[in-house]
Design a protein that fits this description.
13 strands, Rossmann fold, 6-stranded parallel β-sheet
């Protein structure tokens, strides 16, 4: 009988997307009898602890990325690259110390570049083989590819949460693979694998996420426009527990701070139109839903802007700027656009190969 493995899963705290998409990975390995240790930081660590109360947790160094209200987020992140590099180094030192204490058989890293060990099979999950710099930083495209390639090389294999070829959800973010690495396309990774057809109880479901102050700006815009049309049955999942001092609402508007998996899944199933950011983890969660979605990319996040444009070419409705958002127009146009995505699944085949 094969010995059950002890697996360490490191999850980046950059919004909750990396944490939520780790749910099927953790569930599968746990159901296979593995002893699963989870490492993360900040809000992601708190969320994971509440979702998996019986697992062992380790706190990783936090990146503490600071976002700008007006400047490009790429500029903001690039200016913090020195601190990010130091955090990756601290991450690696902590990981080595944990390996001395615990007998890990496998290390899985979701975008934590420092979480690998030369003597332990280490795999990284990422779709970001190429970054999409803003126009002012296009000259850095080749340099960022080199930096990413160097961070990926220590891993035994890179798992890309996407399909290869024309069905790709991430486009040129994960195509082509130019780095000298071993890689596999493992299909979409989402906590929602199936959806149930339900009666439509909500005209609009808004799922808010992302860094401040942009989350609050989107929340304010949506609540103001929804309040001007009280006949629209709406639900806003705020994505935060932080209080909003000047919060407008009406009887047909339901406000939820944070939604659990089953609650959010049911809300998606019972809503006609979804409004959300175009972060990659969100796209993966919605790809099976067969719902009309209005995507509003986070300002300054060139990856989300690229994904929005890619989706619009495939028949989905996207708004370039929050300032251009009009609820009535968005709802009318969204109804004429495509719904759902098609991406092959192979995650569990990839996971089975490491057990």
């Amino acid at each position: 009988m094969k010995r059950k493995k002890t697996i360490f899963i490191a999850i980046l705290n950059w919004g909750l997307g990396h944490a939520t998409r780790s749910v099927p990975v953790i569930n599968y390995l746990t159901h296979q009898g593995c002893e699963v240790h989870i490492g993360s930081s900040g809000h992601s660590l708190l969320w994971l602890k509440s979702r998996f109360p019986n697992h062992t947790f380790h706190e990783l160094p936090d990146y503490h990325i600071q976002y700008s209200k007006n400047r490009s987020q790429a500029w903001a992140i690039w200016s913090q690259f020195g601190r990010i590099k130091k955090t990756i180094a601290r991450e690696h030192e902590l990981l080595k110390a944990l390996c001395n204490t615990h007998s890990f058989d496998v290390i899985l890293s979701d975008n934590c570049y420092g979480c690998y060990h030369p003597d332990i099979d280490s795999y990284i999950i990422t779709h970001q083989l190429h970054l999409i710099p803003p126009k002012a930083l296009l000259f850095l495209g080749g340099l960022t590819d080199v930096v990413i390639g160097n961070y990926l090389k220590p891993f035994k294999e890179v798992w890309i949460p996407d399909a290869e070829g024309p069905e790709s959800l991430s486009g040129k973010l994960s195509h082509p693979v130019k780095h000298d690495i071993r890689y596999r396309y493992c299909g979409i990774i989402s906590r929602f694998t199936t959806y149930t057809e339900r009666p439509i109880n909500h005209d609009v479901l808004a799922i808010l996420s992302g860094p401040e102050p942009h989350r609050t700006l989107l929340e304010t815009t949506l609540t103001n426009q929804l309040c001007s049309q009280p006949k629209i049955r709406s639900v806003i999942v705020r994505g935060t527990t932080q209080q909003q001092d000047t919060f407008r609402k009406h009887p047909n508007m339901k406000i939820i701070d944070l939604a659990g998996e089953s609650e959010l899944k049911e809300l998606i199933e019972s809503s006609e139109i979804i409004i959300s950011r175009s972060g990659y983890s969100t796209l993966m969660d919605l790809q099976h839903s067969d719902k009309k979605v209005v995507f509003i990319p986070t300002p300054g996040q060139s990856e989300q802007q690229y994904l929005s444009h890619l989706l619009s070419k495939k028949g989905h409705y996207c708004v370039d700027k929050l300032a251009d958002f009009n609820l009535t127009s968005a709802m009318q146009q969204a109804k004429t656009f495509s719904a759902g995505f098609t991406v092959n699944e192979s995650l569990y085949n990839v996971l089975a190969d490491i057990l």
